[in-house]
Amino acid sequence: MKEVTKKNYRKKRRKNRLGYFFFGMIVFYLLIKFIPMLISSSNETSIAQYGNIQVVHHLNCYVIRNEQLIISNAEGDIKYFVQEGEKVEKGYKVVEIHKDAVDEITRKKLEVINQRIESLNDNKEYLFQSDVEKLDKEINNIIDNLKQYKEKGDLLKIYQLKKDLESKLDKKRIIVGDKSFAGKNLEALKVEQKQLVNQINNSIIAISSPVSGIISYKIDGYETILNPQNMATIELNKLKNMERSVTDLRGTKVINQQPLFKVVDNNSWYMITWIEKEYLEDYKEGRSVTFNFPQGQIQGKILQIVLDDPKSMVIFEMDEYIEGFDTLRNISLDVVAVNYEGIKIYRDSIVERDGKKGVYVLDINRHASFKPIKIIGYDDTYAIIKSNIFYEKDGEDMKTITTVKLYDEIVRKASKIDQGQVIY
Length: 424
Prior knowledge:
Blueprint: H1 2-38, E1 40-41, E2 45-47, E3 49-71, E4 76-80, E5 87-88, E6 93-98, H2 104-121, H3 126-152, H4 155-176, H5 186-201, E7 204-208, E8 213-216, E9 218-219, H6 236-241, E10 247-248, E11 253-254, E12 259-276, E13 288-293, E14 296-306, E15 311-318, E16 330-346, E17 351-353, E18 356-362, E19 368-372, E20 375-378, E21 382-385, E22 389-394, E23 397-402, E24 409-411, E25 422-423
Parallel strand pairs: 1-25
Antiparallel strand pairs: 2-24, 3-12, 3-16, 4-6, 4-11, 5-8, 6-7, 8-12, 9-10, 12-15, 13-14, 13-16, 14-15, 16-21, 17-18, 18-19, 20-21, 22-23
């Protein structure tokens, strides 16, 4: 009997130990499962602040402008009134072409007749007589000087004095010669004046700018190739094989049908580039982009994307002026293709819970609370998300979702955190 009791006791003890073991396992499981939600953790956190993420590409671009080339319709000497790169309004005189050289006698005749008309209008008949006396005095002085310099053998001075003497004699002949204006009445003088003015004016052609824009005297042969009308059909291989040669059109003489200058529209211009397929997602028609030129930064927009393989053409449109753009044709520069703005957080703060992406935000008692988020964009380290609220479709309706606010404290490395956990 004692033997049986002893065996039962040992059996009962073994059973109790087994029960304790299983009870301990259950307790251990519960500790692992639920205690992290109750005890504190020392995870790193960050403060939600506004920021941005930029996607920057270094691109080789070709500049396209609205350019109007102005051609000469005459031959002769040319005179310029506008500097290279100067902006002018429509109708502003840019050059003059002097078709035939108007002799100096004709110009002197006009000068004298203008004086005669002025004297008659002012009743100053004595003006011409005083002019003659003055001319006689100047002629005599020149003759005396000629004698002196002949004795010295100064040939250069003699040549200059002879020219002066000839000019003075011409003027005297105009005033008092057989065909002078001295005896003519006012009406006859005005007729003569008009004829002389027409004679001089008809020898000069003034060429003005047909539109407002920047004047350039430099052409490179791309004016008919790189233009807004055909830019969507340009082939990269053809551009690469072309050699650019810049010609300065300025000179002293021009011939008929010679290019004189071009007017460049500075209000709207374009650039084209070619993008690899893997980067094309950063370029959408209508999206604003930023160009970092050596001269400064300007804004533009993506006007058109011409899909092709392996590279697609992207056409940018600019309406801002950048110094020197009227002479640029090919340039490599950084382009900010995307600029995401909003609340900036670390990507390691993002977790997925119940099929929704979100982050853990600490409340006033430092308990981790899951907040759904809407991602605007991201890079390798950061993400830009909507702040305060965002909307998502719920059947036929739009549902308002409360999300992260400015200055919320967000848990980093959130994959190790559970809802309700205390973070210090």
